[in-house]
Amino acid sequence: MAIVSAEKFVQAARDNGYAVGGFNTNNLEWTQAILRAAEAKKAPVLIQTSMGAAKYMGGYKVARNLIANLVESMGITVPVAIHLDHGHYEDALECIEVGYTSIMFDGSHLPVEENLKLAKDVVEKAHAKGISVEAEVGTIGGEEDGIIGKGELAPIEDAKAMVATGIDFLAAGIGNIHGPYPANWEGLDLDHLKKLTEALPGFPIVLHGGSGIPDDQIQAAIKLGVAKVNVNTECQIAFANATRKFARDYEANEAEYDKKKLFDPRKFLADGVKLSKHQLKNVSTYSVQKVKHNLAEQYNTETCPLGGFFCVWLYSEYTVEEPILSC
């Protein structure tokens, strides 16, 4: 399966009542883990780089080529979109030029009219090259690479105006935040999400800050029109916890570990990568799992041989004889 733009499989998710995952990568190992999890679950996926992660990896061109080369060398068969997450205007234009297949322009920190104007320009430039575009109104709480949001609710009229720019999917603030959710978090404003989706019938909504949102709220959000869920923090935490445990074990068994040459970074980081992959497998399919009973009633679903999840078979332009199995 070729690397693709994301609008078709995100729209398919919206049309059929499930969501696809957008997962942030930070390096070679994270990219491999995301691709292995997506391939194991036969699920389309957006591999995302934030501005900071791309800089850490050596720049957007390096990040794009790393993902593309791994898709080829690993024999990945599922649709993969290479996506910029929360990009400033200049970063969005650079990613269009170096070959990303999906762009998020985040102008939510700008005055509304400027956000709309720049989004429209990004759409024109991206669509001319077959690249999908996500944009944001109503800031997502927390911080993402220097973009700090208070967690405002997306004004309905602003959301309608942003969709009118021609974007393919919309990130809209509904009380969600980046990073770990505090104990006093009040939850998603599902009533506001309902108003958004009623004002934008059939249009895909993106839920940022997917890590830590209770299952019942994820399920409700998908039923109301969320078609893409971004996940990063819980995978980072899983990686960090496993790596810290390995470091503690190493310190307690230094002579033995040195003899086994476990100081090799490929071995030192292996537990973190393994646990991240396990976490990715869990969250890359949870959207469909949460709505499986509804899907079973509405669509011709079958039990997936990969872990017992329910799956949705979708025929699309991406395949000729085989359907996409989106678990």
Strand order of the largest sheet: 1-2-3-4-5-8-9-10
Q: Beta-strand level of the residues, as a percent range?
A: 15-25%
- Which sheet architecture does the biggest sheet show? 8 strands, parallel, barrel
Discrete helix count: 15
Question: Percentage of helical residues?
Answer: 40-55%
Task: Indicate the radius of gyration in whole angstroms.
Answer: 19 Å
In words, what does this structure look like?
The chain contains 15 helices and 13 strands. The radius of gyration is 19 Å and the shape is globular. The chain has helices at 7-16, 28-41, 51-57, 60-73, 89-98, 112-127, 156-163, 190-199, 215-223, 233-252, 254-259, 265-268, 270-283, 286-290, 292-298; strands at residues 20-24, 45-50, 80-87, 102-105, 132-137, 142-144, 147-149, 169-172, 205-207, 226-231, 302-303, 310-314, 324-326. Helix 6 (112-127) links the parallel strand 4 and strand 5. The longest helix is centred in the C-terminal third of the chain and has 20 residues, at 233-252. Residues 283-327 have low confidence and may be disordered. It is of the alpha/beta class and 327 residues long.
